[in-house]
Amino acid sequence: MYAIVEIAGHQFKVEKDQKVFVNRLATEEGKAVSFDNVLLVADGSNVTVGAPAIDGAQVSAKVLKHLKGDKVIVFKKKRRKGYRVKNGHRQALTEIVIESIVASGAKPAKAAPKKETKKAEPKAEAKKAAPKATAKKATGKADDLKKIEGIGPKIASTLAEAGIATFAELAKTDAAKISEIIAGVRGNHVTDTWPAQAQLAADGKWDELKKWQDELDGGKA
Prior knowledge:
Elements (H helix, E strand, L loop, with lengths): L1 E6 L2 E6 L3 E5 L8 E4 L2 E6 L2 E4 L8 E11 L3 E7 L4 E7 L2 E11 L18 H17 L15 H9 L5 H5 L3 H7 L12 H9 L3 H8 L8
Antiparallel strand pairs: 1-2, 1-5, 3-10, 4-7, 5-6, 7-10, 8-9
């Protein structure tokens, strides 16, 4: 009967009473040690393969002694650089003897308790706040006030900041009030015809508006 078991990061094929050298274990000399990560157990023609390990299988062993392996020379050299380094290394090992191989019935190792994860509350608050953001976007589109004779990009921006962004809003605003709003814009602006032009634009009378604008000069008749 033999088994393939993982010990200290390496896989070994072991049998009862076999001595094995493995990477240094933390167990003291003379103490028993067991390994639960058994990948395969073969007993004559009966072969059990784990996925990846076999539930309930276990390999028990006894630590005989701790020692160091043979020295390994590590030599590094770089051509035409004058670089040469020579080091020696001896791997820390543990000698164990396999005492028993159990194919089933071993007590499984206790699994670490799973940590409960709580759902983040800020995400829920973000979802609740989403409708408010979309409500702000659902406003009416502003008209292109530059279609009014005498209004340029700067004046259109100034009027929009004052709350006048559509032809209908401009048509309802007194010419004197418009002059006060755009007082900070450089230039001599005549606003007398702007409300009337805006009314034609708001009513969709573009042909009539164009005919009138051909007769205007900077918004002045």
